[in-house]
Amino acid sequence: MSVLSFLTPSNMEELQQCLRMADERTKFISGGTDLIIKLRKNINEDWKLIDLSGVAELDYIKEDGKIIRIGACTTFAELASNPIIKKYGRCLSMAAAEVGSVQIRNRATIAGNIANASPAADSLAPLSVLGAKALLMDRQGNKTVCEIDNLISGVGKNNLDVGQIILEIFFPVNENLVSSFVKLGSRKKVSISRLSITIAAEYNNQEQHLNNVRVAIGAVGPIPLKAVKSASLIDEKDISSEVMESFSESLAEEVEEAIKGRSSMPYKRKAVIGLGKDLLNDLLTYISALEREESYDR
Predict the structure, then answer these.
(1) Is the pLDDT of residue 58 over 70?
(2) Mutual angle of helices 241-258 and 265-297, in 10-degree steps
C-alpha cells in the first residue's frame, strides 16, 4: 500500500478545498480505527487520505432548541460521557460505552462508524430508534439531509458520493423519551457486536406505560432490523412477565425471518430471547430510577 497524498485540513475552508481535490481513491480518516484495517488488507492499492481530525468545527455535542446535534468527529468516549446524550439519547450513550476498548472509544468517531457500514456498528440501531438523520456536504459545499439507513448500500458500502462527507448527526429532543441498549459481543474485553437490541419509547408517569415504542435489532443485516411487530406487543401495555415473554419470543421470530438459512440463525434466535428480557428489565429499572428522582424533587 502506498499513500499518494495525506491532507490535513485545520478548518472548514481548508476542508472544502480538500473535498474539491477528492477522487475515487480518496478516503477520509478521523479516528482511523476502521480505515487502518482496510489499508492493511488492500496493500496493493493507492490511497489519498484526508484527515478530518484537525477540523475542530466537526467535534461537538450540543442542544440546539429542539434538536440534539453531534459533530461528525465526535468520539464514542465523548458520546458515552456527555450529559446531553445521557439525557436525551441514553441508548446511544450506552452503545458508545460498549464500543471496542477504551483506546478505540477515544479514537473512533460516530461518522466513521456510520460510513464504514459494518452490520456490527453499534451506533446504527440507537440512531435508528432515535429518529436520527445525517447532514452531508459535497465537494461544492452543498448541504443535504439524509436518513441514516439510506446512507448504507450494503455490507461495508455507503452511498456517499466522491468528495461527500458527513458533517453532523442530529435527532429531535423528546423530554418523555426513555431508551436502552443491550448487546452480545464476540470477545469479552474488546467486544464486537454479534447481536444488539435497542429500544426507545415515550413514557408518561400518569399513564404508567410506554407509547410510540421503537425497537431495532443490530448485526443481522447491513442496516438495523426494525422490529415493528415486537414493538407493538409492548406499546401502551403494562410490562408484565407474560408481556415480556411474548416480546422476547416475537424478537426471536423476527430475527429468524430476517436471517433464515444462515448458519448463525439458531444461535441468534436463542440469544435474542435473553437479550430482549435484559433490554426491558434495564428500561424498567431506569424508569423506576427516574420516578424516584421526580418524587424527591416534589
Answers:
(1) yes
(2) 140
